[in-house]
Amino acid sequence: MIEAEVHQLLREFLRQQGHSQWPHHLTMARLVARALRLGRSALLQTGSTAAYRGRYRLSYLMPALVWPGPIVLVVPNAIHQQLVQDDIPTLLQTLPTIKSIQIGDRWPSQTFQGILITTPSAWLSAQLRATSGAEQSPDTAPFPPNIVTLIDGIDPLMDWARTQLTYSLNDTDWHQLGLAYPSQQEVIRDLRVKLTHLAFQHPANPYSCYLADSEEYDLLAELDHRLASTPMGLEGLPPAWRQFRQQLNRDDGMAWLQLNRDSGQLTLQCAPVTLAKMLAPIWQRQPVVLIGAAVDEDQRAESYRQRLGLEDLTCLKFTPDRQHDGIQLYTPDQLPMPNSSRFPTAILQEIRHLLQLPETRTQPTVILVGDTPLKAQIGSILAAEYGSRVQVEQPELGHNGILVTGWEFWQDYRLRCPAPGLLIITTLPIPSLENPLVAGQVAYYKRLHQDWFRLFLLPTALQTLQLAIAPISAQQGKVALLDNRVNHRSYGRTILKTLNPIAQSTYLDPSWLAPANQAL
User: Fold this and answer.
1) Distance (Å, rounded) from C-alpha 421 to C-alpha 472?
2) Cα–Cα 20 to 30 A to 248, which of 257, 399, 422, 461?
3) Burial annotation 418-456 (CB, 10 A radius, 16+ → b, else e)
4) Could you report the per-residue pLDDT of 9-58, keeping only the tens digit for each?
5) Residue 336 backbone class (left: φ over 0; alpha: ψ -120 to 50; beta: rest)
6) How far apart are CA 446 and CA 437, in angstroms?
7) pLDDT band of 514, cuts 50, 70, 90
């Protein structure tokens, strides 16, 4: 069977490399080989540190190259170059057979039996068109059905899908609507002015986005009514308006307003609150092997599968390598809570204290601040004290630099910057209700009388946190978590369990300050 062949080939390859690199190589390779042979879908969680290092990829590349049938390999741009220029050529040199590798956004031909490497956006958009009936025939689809598909780096999969399912209306679309309904141009202009005026009444927030309220929905409904009363009715809607309206009228559709206060521009956007119904037909169209770092704290990933519309499939969550992974975690328990007025002053004092540690003079330090105004405040104060060492969300980080950043910037930059010796986290990355996408999903869970914190906010925070600390865990470095909720809230235990392996301390004792290989 292919499982035995893959096991033997990969073991020999790893032996030639001189070390195993990752303790779960052979187990994962056999699971992927089995999924290819049986055509059975699987969900594999490698762990955030293994994902950061990237060594696990050998475990799905080997069975993919040995498998005689066709495969679609979906990978993010961040790891595309590493696969194509390094990992795949290295493996091909050791294999007795040669498999064709192509890169593109369409299946090469009906007779192609190799591996097609494509991007998440190309694959998802094609799958959504195919499952919605937009493709007239399977022969015209960019990706034919029933081809085993490996998708790596699925941690942002829900963001990828929601991006594909988000429809927007901007200035150009309003102009085109007026051209499509010349007799209604004055009505369209007046309703647009009213909508824009309402939108700019919302108080400013860091996202410049606002969930549409009842008044704004009423204006959109009035526009629908006016256009429907014309001779051609709503059949005359331009494509962008037709798509927006279809999405908005879904039972779980939500709309939000994106404002540019400097230019006075308004963009309307809408997307489904839940993705399960839209994505479920995709997983039925072909077997998929989904590979992520940390998508669910549970091995069966039931919550994650429910949100994505994934039915029963093989699930496995690999344990961390305790010999080479882990962090020294400092969680002071005397700090005020984040909603306290004393919090900014207290954490600034704590940050100053931490910046006296010896490693901050020879290694980069990263300070994660989720609150935008507080991020600017901390960056300004530290820059006055430490000079040019301090950067606020800048991609150049010196050997002893201090980077003050938000979560979104760090999630992207962490893969390209030198690993910091110290990571300071001011608050847990619990999604803000000021973000309309977050508020819309929370409102949906509330309507269903479900635990929106445990089902949505906490899993999102856990995933963000694990990915953020991966560079530090990879070198058994130091993390200071200054959010006292981890010590005094019931979900704090869940967070600490998720971050394992850790050596935790609530004070800076000598063992915490010792070299990493002594403390862990």
Assistant:
1) 7
2) 461
3) ebbbbbbbbbbbbbeeebbbbbbbbebbeeeeeebeebb
4) 999 999 988 766 789 999 999 999 999 999 999 999 999 999 999 989 99
5) beta
6) 14
7) low
